[in-house]
Structures are given as structure tokens and as C-alpha cells.
Amino acid sequence: MNAVIHTSWLQDAPSGASAAATGLAASMGAGSALAGVDLLRTGLALAFCLALGIGAIFVIRRSHGISGKWLPEAATRRLRVVESTRLSARASLHLVEYGNRTVLLASDASGIKLLDAQDGPATEPKS
């Protein structure tokens, strides 16, 4: 990409300034594509953006409880949805274990209702 620099506005300036502008135009027109680009500043900006992206990934994974090799496992979770089933477009049942307690919840358009609560884990139905 060649940049065009107009030097006509420098014709009334001293000859040194006109020569400098002409030299600048010649160096940009026939020079390298990186003329005027500060590579150190560009590299630092790239490193900053990469660090920002990695930090954002870490925060998102941490806030959603997603574990990886370098994140601790979520072994201390006390709440577990054993089963859910949809009864209609706006109503569903949820069997939830909380610690050593099992609760049956119904959710519909009016809210959530406790249907049953028992001590102990949920048992599998016998076939």
C-alpha cells in the first residue's frame, strides 16, 4: 500500500522543509510497508490484548463453575438436580438433592412450590 503525500502546500516554506517533505514522501512511497509503525508498541498492545482475553476466559470459567486442569474441582457442591420433567409448556417437576435431603419442586407460571421433602438421598425406582 503506497501512501500519497501532497507537498504543494509546502512550496512557500523554506527549502529545507520542502526537501524534508519530499524525502518523507519518497521514503514512504518506495519504502517498506512498516514505515511509521512502532513495532514495540504494536507488540505490547498485542500482548496486552492476549492477557486481557486469557483473564476474561479465567473469570468466566470461574464464575460458571467450569473446571479444567488448572482449576480446582467443584467437590463441595451440595445441590444436585437428580431429575427434571416438563409437564406442560409452563409447568415442570424437579427432584433436587440438597445435602442429605431430597425435595420435589413444582415450577409453573405462578412460581415454585415445594411438593415433598424427605431425609436421605433419592432412591432409584425398582424395575
Automatic annotation (TrEMBL):
Record localization: Cell membrane
Keyword Transmembrane helix among UniProt keywords: yes
Keyword Iron-sulfur: no
Sequence intervals crossing the membrane: 43-60
Pfam families, sorted: FliO (PF04347)
Primary subcellular site in the record, as a coarse category: membrane
Biological process terms in GO annotation: bacterial-type flagellum organization
Keywords: Cell membrane, Cell projection, Cilium, Flagellum, Membrane, Transmembrane, Transmembrane helix
Highest taxon, organism lineage: Bacteria
GO cellular component: membrane
Protein name: Flagellar biosynthesis protein, FliO
Native source organism of the sequence: Paraburkholderia phenazinium
